[in-house]
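FORM 12-B: Structure-to-Sequence Request
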C-alpha cells in the first residue's frame, strides 16, 4: 500500500510514521509513506495557502487552487489512482470498520486541512470522501492522518508480527460484532494485593474462554453499553447481562 499526505507541516509525520510497527512495516515494504508540502503548489510571493472567507467571519480558509493542483499532480505522479480522503470534523466518523474498508485500497492520499476550514470547491473537485476522527475540533488533519494510517497499516498482512493479534481485539468482528476486549494480565500473579484471576492460571481452556467472553460482556455493559445494541448475543449471554 502507498499512503501519502498533503499538509502545510509535512515534517510532523516523520517520527511517528517511522517508529515501531509502522517503521518496520515500511522497511519490510508492506507500505510506503510520503508527505508533501502544500506550499509547493503555491505561485505567489508569500506562498499563501489560506485567505479570508467570502461573506465574512472569523478565521482563514484554505484556498482551493493549491489543494486541487497538489492533489492532481500527486495523483498523476503514479499510474495507480489514489483514494483521496480529506480530514474534517464534518466527515464520516472513523471506526474499525472504516479502517478495514480503507485497508482494501492500494493507494491512499490524505489531505490535511488547517485554519478554519477548506474552500468547499476543493471537496467538490478532488475529494473521494471525508473522514472525521470524532466530535471534537483539532487544529489540523495531520493527527487524523496518522491515526487513520496507524489503524489501517496494522491490518495489512504481515504488519503485526503475530497474525492473530489483530483478530481478537476490541471492535473486531470476531468478538461478536464489536464488544470491548477482555482484561489481560501478565506476571507477576500478585501485585500490591491485586491478583490475576485464578481462572487464567488454571490451564482450563474452556473456563478461560468463558471467563473472557463474560469479562468482555461486563466491560462493554459498563463502559460502552451502546455497543451491546448491535452485538449478536446468545440467550445465555443476554441472561448473563441481566444478572
Ligand atoms: N480536523 C479538525 N478536526 C478534525 C477531526 N475531528 N477529525 C478529522 N479531521 C479534523
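FORM 12-B RESPONSE
SEQUENCE OUT:
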Amino acid at each position: 500500500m502507498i499512503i501519502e499526505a498533503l499538509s502545510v507541516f509535512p515534517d510532523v509525520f516523520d517520527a511517528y510514521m517511522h517508529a515501531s510497527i509502522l517503521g518496520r512495516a515500511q522497511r519490510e515494504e508492506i507500505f510506503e509513506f510520503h508527505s508533501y508540502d502544500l506550499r509547493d503548489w503555491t505561485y505567489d510571493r508569500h506562498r499563501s495557502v489560506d485567505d479570508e472567507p467570502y461573506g465574512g467571519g472569523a478565521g482563514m480558509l484554505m484556498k482551493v487552487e493549491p489543494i486541487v493542483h497538489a492533489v492532481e499532480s500527486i495523483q498523476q505522479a503514479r499510474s495507480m489512482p489514489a483514494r483521496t480522503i480529506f480530514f474534517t470534523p464534518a466527515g464520516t466518523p472513523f471506526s474499525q470498520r472504516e479502517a478495514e474498508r480503507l485497508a482494501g485500497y492500494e493507494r491512499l492520499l490524505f489531505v490535511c486541512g488547517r485554519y478554519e476550514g477548506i474552500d468547499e470547491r476543493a471537496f467538490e473537485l478532488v475529494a473521494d470522501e471525508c473522514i472525521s476522527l470524532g466530535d471534537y475540533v483539532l487544529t489540523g488533519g495531520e493527527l487524523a492522518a496518522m491515526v487513520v494510517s496507524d489503524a489501517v497499516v496494522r491490518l495489512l498482512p504481515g504488519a503485526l508480527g503475530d497474525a492473530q493479534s489483530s483478530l481478537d481485539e476490541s471492535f473486531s468482528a470476531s468478538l461478536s460484532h464489536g464488544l470491548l476486549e477482555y482484561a489481560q494480565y501478565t506476571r507477576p500473579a500478585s501485585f500490591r494485593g491485586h491478583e490475576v484471576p485464578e481462572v487464567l492460571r488454571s490451564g482450563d481452556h474452556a473456563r478461560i474462554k468463558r471467563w473472557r467472553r463474560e469479562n468482555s460482556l461486563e466491560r462493554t455493559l459498563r463502559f460502552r453499553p451502546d455497543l451491546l445494541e448491535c452485538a449478536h448475543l446468545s440467550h445465555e449471554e443476554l441472561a448473563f447481562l441481566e444478572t
